[in-house]
Automatic annotation (TrEMBL):
The keyword Nucleotidyltransferase does not apply. The keyword Metal-binding applies. InterPro entries: DNA-dir_RNA_pol-M_15_CS (IPR019761), Rpa12/Rpb9/Rpc10/TFS (IPR012164), Zn_ribbon_RPA12_C (IPR034004), Znf_TFIIS (IPR001222). It comes from Hucho hucho. This is DNA-directed RNA polymerase subunit. Zn(2+) 2 binds at residues 78, 81, 106, 109. Core component of RNA polymerase I (Pol I), a DNA-dependent RNA polymerase which synthesizes ribosomal RNA precursors using the four ribonucleoside triphosphates as substrates. Can mediate Pol I proofreading of the nascent RNA transcript. Anchors into the Pol I active site to monitor transcription fidelity and cleave mis-incorporated 5'-ribonucleotides. Keywords: DNA-directed RNA polymerase, Metal-binding, Nucleus, Transcription, Zinc, Zinc-finger. GO terms for cellular component: nucleoplasm; RNA polymerase I complex. Its main location: nucleus. Belongs to the archaeal rpoM/eukaryotic RPA12/RPB9/RPC11 RNA polymerase family. A zinc finger (C4-type) spans 11-32. CDD domains: Zn-ribbon_RPA12. It comes from the Eukaryota. The lineage of its organism: Eukaryota, Metazoa, Chordata, Craniata, Vertebrata.
């Protein structure tokens, strides 16, 4: 009995995306042993589209030579200048069984904060 059902583009056993039908008589899931005859896809039309977000609305940080300001800008308020917009990076500073340390840098005043997760 399958755990997943509904969309024929997904494996009903593990939920993985099924590859497009090819020259073989079956479509096999690349993750599990499930396979399905190509005839199951008879009469189906598969469409896809790619939608790009406008560049002016993106969350990419301001281009700068300073390596501390590279990365995505997140909606976090700086505790020093009280403006929105910080970039972050993570490091494993403590032992492996503890969470990472997240370093935030304000894109306006370059104030740095850290948070142990």
């Amino acid at each position: 009995m399958s755990c997943f059902s509904g969309d024929p583009n997904f494996c009903p056993e593990c939920g993985n995306v099924l590859p497009l039908p090819g020259l073989q008589d079956t479509v096999s899931c690349p993750r599990c042993a499930f396979s399905l005859p190509v005839s199951e896809f008879s009469g189906q039309e598969i469409r896809s589209s790619v939608v790009f977000n406008p560049l002016e609305g993106s969350s990419v940080a301001v281009e700068d030579e300073d390596s501390e300001l590279k990365g995505a800008v997140i909606d976090r308020r700086c505790s020093r200048c009280n403006k929105e917009g910080m970039v972050y990076h993570t490091r494993q500073m403590r032992s492996a069984d503890e969470g990472q340390t997240v370093f935030f840098t304000c894109i306006h005043c370059r104030y740095q904060e850290k948070e142990d997760s």
